[in-house]
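Translate sequence into structure tokens.
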Amino acid sequence: MSLARPPGPTSTTFDSEATLRRENDSLREKLREAQETLDVIRNGDVDAVVVSGADSQPRVYTLETADQTYRLLVEEMQEGTLTLTRSGDILYCNRRLAELVETVPERVIGGSLKRFVAASDWPDVLNWISAGSKAELGIQTDRGRIVPTHVSFSALRGNDLGGEDVFCCIITDLTEQRRTGDQLRAAHAALLAQMAGRERTERLLRHSQKMEAIGRLTGGIAHDFNNLLMVIIGGLSILDGTPPPERRQTVREGMRQAAERGAALTRQLLAFSRQKELHATPIAVPRYVGGMKELLDGSLGGKIALKMEFDPELWTVRVDEGELGIAILNLCVNARDAMPQGGTVTIAARNRPDIHEYGLAGDFVELSVTDTGEGMDAETMSRCLEPFYTTKGIGKGSGLGLAQVYGFAHGSEGTVQIESKAHEGTKVLLLFPRSKAAPAAASTSTDLRGDAVTSGQPRCRVLLVEDDVQVAFLTGAMLAELGYEVIPVTTGQAALDELAHTQDIGLVLSDIMMPGGMDGVALVREMRLRRIPLPVLLVSGYAAAAKREAEREGIPLLSKPYTLSDLAAKLRDTIGSTGRRAELIPSVPTGPFPVP
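Result follows.
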């Protein structure tokens, strides 16, 4: 039977094996002393040996008593012990060795150690015997089992058998140590799997909380967007006629404001819904919450007034802005649901220097959301932070809103506290550590009229790659307004063909997402392969993966929707960053555009 060498010891077995080996070495030394004593008596050099014991009482060892001590010592060992010749013939074994190989001593003594060792291992074992080595070895029992063991060979001094040396072998069973090691490895693997599953569950939970918050906003957002579309569609119908110049200007201004509000709402919804890892940044709370006002007004409805009260010198906090928005949104929607007849929601923030409460210490910013609603009784208060606990009817809430707020606050090294009484309203306090880092600068608003476009703008030929007919028409008109000549194409391959046959193109303006198998990023890569050294500006509606690719490639991006001023500034930056001057051409009428 071919036996495989058992796997080596794990780190968990080293201490126990080292202890066993030290005990074995001590027992082996006692065994040698007893053997030497027995040899002296057997050789007839003395009739007896007198040894002083620990109690100062002398003990006399004769041939009979010395042999008895030797055998008792060996038989009581917890390891298998045997003596054998250099060729592996077994001269003696104790009871433990016989138990290990699942037989009786009489069936072991007189045989060969080879009987219990795999044929492939036997040459190694013979070398270990001669060299007095220590190693690990799989021992085969009489019942066919393989027992992992540690073997230790050594020569017995002064012993020979007809001129042949005699060796001692101590065999330690490693089964229990291996079982313990396997259990520890299995437990470790299970722990890693559990941690990975927990992280995935947390990610899914965070995303479900975001989507639930957006779902709870659907009615208000739909109402807002319908109003915005009404302004734009109605305004267009007025402009189709011949209104007086003053009314035309008023209608255009209203349409512009409606479009800007729609763009702001879209950006906020995308920020809330996208799946991303938590990323803390320094945030100015008044500016951030103020930017949410449109979204919050739409969710609260006309019967609820929204108030904001912030300390004028409010500190910065460092939190994930998406999670902060979701937390505020959840608290405001909860407040709305607690005031079916209407009321007031107040969002406030103040500095809390050097606090020592709620298990916190240091400088914190307190952000609170207070309503004048129904409040909570003691039982609801005790359970309101539990995931999936809700007092709302079926289909009106999953109970994840306050759980998200709690997890976000504690994940930001802060805490959440709730103050509420039945019929007296609710106040939710969020405490975040103060950050001394400066918040990111707010983006400046621009208008659609292009007032910021400067005269003397360099004019060059722009290759416009856009598959949407209406967007291509509008973008072409904006480029023409800025003084650029436009060559429109609808696919990445058409853009490459145009670049191969048309001279004096100074810049490529392309949408990221396009049909035909070649998106904007792939177009840039192909241009680089063909050594076309033109500046490229990519335009993105919302495609997170494509945007990440463009950012990794170092390609400038312009987000939709954009104003004439946005486009002008980005074109100047893109042309200037290439280190080359776009070729100037005379001001000529723009190229043909597809008419929607």
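Note: The domain at 461-577 is CATH 3.40.50.2300 (Rossmann fold).
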